[in-house]
Each structure stands twice: as structure tokens, then as C-alpha cells.
Specification:
binds NADP nicotinamide-adenine-dinucleotide phosphate; 7-stranded parallel sheet; Rossmann fold
Length: 335
Amino acid sequence: MSLCCYLEYILIVVGVIFAFIAVADKLISKKRDLKGKHVMITGGSSGIGLSVAHEVAGRGAHVTLIARNIANLEKAKADVEATVANSVAGGKVQIFSVNLGCDSDAVSSVIKDAEAVLGPVYMLVNCAGFSRAQKFEELSPQVVKSVMDVNVLGSFFITQEAVRSMKQQQEGIIVFTSSQGGLLGLYGFSAYSAAKGALIKLAEALHMEVKPYNITVTVCCPPDTDTPGFEEENKTKPTETKLISEAAGLFKPEEVAHKLVEDALAGKFMTTNGLEGFMLTALCAGMGPITDLKSFLAQVLLSGVFRAVSAFYLWSFDRIVYKEYQQRMSSKKAE
Ligand SMILES: NC(=O)c1ccc[n+]([C@@H]2O[C@H](COP(=O)([O-])OP(=O)(O)OC[C@H]3O[C@@H](n4cnc5c(N)ncnc54)[C@H](OP(=O)(O)O)[C@@H]3O)[C@@H](O)[C@H]2O)c1
């Protein structure tokens, strides 16, 4: 038998194994459903959070939306109520204006206030957050503090409140929205990558703590997604960051939200979109929780190959950075 035949044979066997695992995974995984359940979404008035609200409302959940701007919250509530009206199972929608970055008293009471109307929170989706892409030395202390406060502490404290309630119920789903920029540090994202990376470690620790209580933890690592937040991020983004990140493409918030909800209901620890996302989450799994057979086998079998592929990505990123540096230097000399 020639080498080509051997390779073909190996590829077919690997393909069949993966197909078998995918089917087995679907049969084994006990997908939960959201009909009549209370889902709380921080950052639910815009972008990915708002799309998650539509996704869960369409599945019959009662929805609590949290953000700061009350006018945007009211508009989001009306939008999500329209989705509820078109779905078979009618849920309720309520809104709360809270600054998750600093308003600790309001954070501790919002779960109680929301639960008083819609019952115990079954699923908390932490979406509130923002990114600031700027060169390291140009980031002001206020911006760095705010990136940490909103992205990390804004998820931390409200999740503590939710976990207290979920432990009593002996069930629940917690979702943290990190980023692909939380899986690897990228040019211009020193504050943002640090904050989103911290969320992944927070989720790993919490996953181990709450597992016996039938509470699952999922981390969403979205790629670039077409949202008002992404538009804002682009305003300060260095050219290097734009060139590096555009390779992975731009996703729709609805696609990210759909995958987030599907994977969270299946209890998967990581959820992401696209080929780069698949590669990154497999490569960065480390000592993270093992929650499904398919992802685990992909991590075991493909990590070595993906590490080799990462060398090409890193080489092309370094080239972009070096080229921009040279251009800056030559225009400085010309001045
Ligand atoms: N879009 C992307 O390309 C992308 C990629 C990876 C990860 N992510 C992450 O995904 C999440 C959602 O991003 P997005 O692009 O959908 O953002 P977005 O469109 O700007 O929406 C952000 C939401 O968070 C709320 N929010 C912001 N700061 C808050 C605070 N201090 N307290 C309470 N609510 C706050 C906003 O409402 P108010 O301003 O009214 O408070 C809004 O509802 C973020 O965590 C982001 O880092 C986004």
C-alpha cells in the first residue's frame, strides 16, 4: 500500500471516529431548556447581550435585562417583548438600570429585586463589558481601572449574588463573556486581554466549586462581532490591532448568541465561533474543565497540530507589528 493510501485510510478512520463522537455526544448530553425559566442578562440592552435576550425569549424564558442607560433599556425591552409576542411560549421582560462597574449596593440588591418578580434566576449571562484598544503606554489609569472594574468585577459581584440563589435551588447556569482576546494577548489589548483572561480563570475556579450543586459555568469567547461596542472599540484601535484581528472575520451578534445559548444549555465550558475560535479554545484548554467528549478529544488529538499552526499566525502578527514600526520610524526620520 502506498503512503497516500495509508494517509487516506487514516483520515477516513479519524473522520469516522469524530462523526461517531459527535453523534454520541448529542445522545449523551442532557440539553436543558429555558421554558418558563428566569434568565438575567447584564449588558442586555445592546449587541451580544441583546441578541442573547432575543434568543432566550424565543425559547420561552422570562428575561431580566441590566445596563446603565435607561432609554436603551426601555427600547431593548420593547424589542424583546416583540420577540416574546411572536414566540409560542410567552415570557415576561423586565429591566434594571445598574452600573455594574461601581454601584456595589445596587448590584447586591438587583438579584433579589429581579427574583421578587420573575422567580429564582436560572441562568445569568454576564455580557456587560467594553474594550479599549490602545497602545500600552497610552492607556490612562482611569481607562485601565474601568476596563478591570466593568469586565471583571462587574461580572464577579453579580455572579456571587446569583450563585447564592442558585445553590439554594440546586440548579443554574452561569455564563461569562470573555473574548478570543482573553485567550491570547494581542497588540493594543494589554488591559482588555488581562481583564478577559482573568474572567477565564475565575470561571475555571467557580466551575469546580459549583459543580456539586448542579450549576454549570460557560465562558463565551466571541470573535470580532458587529455590535455598537465593536464600533466604539474601532475608534481608538491601533492599525496593528486592526490588521491582526481582521484575519478572523466579523461575526453577527445573533450567531454568537445562538451558539452561546446552545453550548451553555449543554453545559459546555467553552463556547466560541469560527475556525480560529475552535483552534484557540482547543489550544488554550490547559487544565480547564472537561465538559464534553468532542471538545476533549479535539484538545487531546489536535493541540500539537494547532500549536504548529499557531507559529504561522504569530509569525504573521509579528510581521505586521514590525512593518508598522518600520513605517513609523521612517516617517519620523523624514520629518
Ligand atoms: N463585539 C465584539 O467584537 C466582542 C468580541 C469579544 C468579546 N466581546 C464582549 O462581549 C460583551 C458584549 O459586547 P458588545 O460588543 O455586545 O457590547 P455593546 O454593544 O457595547 O453592549 C454592551 C452592553 O453592556 C452594558 N454596559 C456597559 N458597561 C456597563 C456597566 N458599567 N454597567 C452595566 N452595564 C454596562 C451596555 O449598556 P450601558 O452602556 O447602557 O450600560 C450594553 O448593554 C462585552 O463583554 C465585550 O467585551 C465583544
